[in-house]
Amino acid sequence: MKKNTTLWLVISMLIVSSMVLAACGAPETVEVIKEVEVIKEVEVEVEAPAAPMPAEPVTLNWNWGTEPPTLDPSLATDTTSVDVAGNLFVGLTKFDPVSGEVSPYLATEWESGEDADGNQTWTFKLRDDIAWVSYDPLTGETTQVADDDGNPRFVNANDVVYGVKRTVDPATASDYSYVLYIINNAAEINGGSEELTLDDLGVVALDDWTVQFTLKNKAGYFPAIAGMWVAYAMPQWAIEEWADKWTEAGLIVTSGPYALETWIHGGELNLVKNPLWINADDVQIERIYGLMIQEASTAFALYENNELDSVGVPLPEMDRVKADPVLSADYVEAPTPCTYYYGFVNTKYPFDDVRVRTAFAQSIDRRSLIDNVTKGGQTPATSLAPPGIFGAPEPGTIGLQYDPEAAMASLQGFLDENGMTIEDFNALDIVLMHNTSEGHALIAAAIQQMWADNLGAEVRVENQEWKVYLDTVKNSTPIEDVPHIFRLGWCADYPDENNWIHEVFNSDEGANRVRTANEDFNALTVAAGSAQDPAEREALYAEAEEMFAVEMAAYAPIYHYTTVNVTKQWLTRNFPPLGANDFFNWTLDADARDAQ
């Protein structure tokens, strides 16, 4: 904006006969001025320079949905933590956000071979130009980290080896370390072997830019595991200096397309573009402003007020969104490789009896739940792995179907044998627990009613905040502190059944929150993972899925997910079937948003 200013110029001729100069720094006056002649006064118009306005960064307004339990790649187990870590750090490989295919990332190429003992090896060649960086929240500057000799640090093979060993190290207490048990000696070391040390783990840096893994069984899917967060390169020096605080803003050292700007625990977590990233020029979204709103209805209200750019659709809003001409244009519904399930704690009475578990699984009307509650086109699930995963059964071909009469007969058999009535059973105070969420609460209420209608069973529903909840449902939590039934979802880490029925439920090498101890089942999933013939692997996995869902009735699969989302027209994004949301591949028209 122009600003008019009147400036009076006095042009004068000074004739000085005598002048005393001031010494440097000492105040003095001119002694004599003989004559001052004013020639003229003029008025001129000038334009005052405008103060430069800093450009606003292109900012994505995002809702993480909850406080991430951790940003430490070795400790992350949930999608929120993985979403953040996947934008802060770089893995050996990544998944194509559209096709889901494994593609190069830190590693430019890889090949399979054998060692002298006939064990399969996987060798990865690394690029040498990905910088370790530090972001200063006070100055807003991102700088490359240097080593003790002042040399700039680049992510190398030794950082990968350190990261993998750190995850496997039992002292780290990684709940996701079992994913790496395919690496030679990993299971034994993580289990506290007295004969083996981390030096015996099947991972080694052949040179600064080459890392090699040796596996205990052949696994064609290993390049996908190698790109997972638990196998990320990690900054050993920063972790050793700051210990548990190393993931805080200002302390964390990262390698990905974004850096951690701020983390206000319980409030917001913001990311900022890493200007030293290898493809920084291609990263259009410069900042992620991330909230931690658990209530889907609150997040959706912010979306409708143009304060969030993309959110999930709350279950009560599904009908309105589909009918609304504006919201329906924003709506996206697509299959997602995730499964929603209720786990039974198999060692907690009365769910230590297969008849009780069978009754509760068979009395869930999944189709009614989807048609009347979730309304997002989900697929009813009676087994674990969803369509699109190698070895996954066709939906509905394996597992316990909805059959209220059979369910009641099963529960009645338990009651009769124990001399109980349904009133006695209800006096046991059965608890179903889910993490805090309006959507989970609606699903729990619907299934609670199904159990009441079909079995006469009364179930109490509780909820906990996400981080607390994850600790509660661990298989190491004292039995008196865990619920009888818990809600969880599992999404693909890599597209193979090994990531599902083996890693979720194998009691020797999996998470096993349902606390089974069936050695026949364990042996079956191990045999399936080791088999080299694809048809044999599929048959063994199908047998394992059937055993777990029917013979053991260890859990109740409910549905295979769909993405149910609304996204503003000014945001161009994808919906990766595997891995973290890749904000660095999205684009946002900030002018279009500002015009609203």
Q: Keyphrases for this structure?
A:
single chain, Dipeptide-binding Protein, domain 1, seven-stranded mixed sheet, Dipeptide-binding Protein, domain 3, globular, 3 domains, alpha+beta, four-stranded mixed sheet
What is the overall pLDDT average? 91
Q: Give the total of beta strands.
A: 24
Ends distance: 24 Å
Number of helices: 18
**Can you tell me the CATH topology of the largest domain?**
Dipeptide-binding Protein, domain 3
| Unreliable runs | 1-46
Structural class, by secondary structure, is: alpha+beta
How would you sum up the major sheet?
7 strands, mixed
* CATH 4th-level superfamily of the largest domain: Dipeptide-binding Protein, Domain 3
Rg, rounded, reads: 31 Å
- CATH architectural group of the largest domain: Roll
Q: Which shape, going by the Cα principal axes?
A: globular
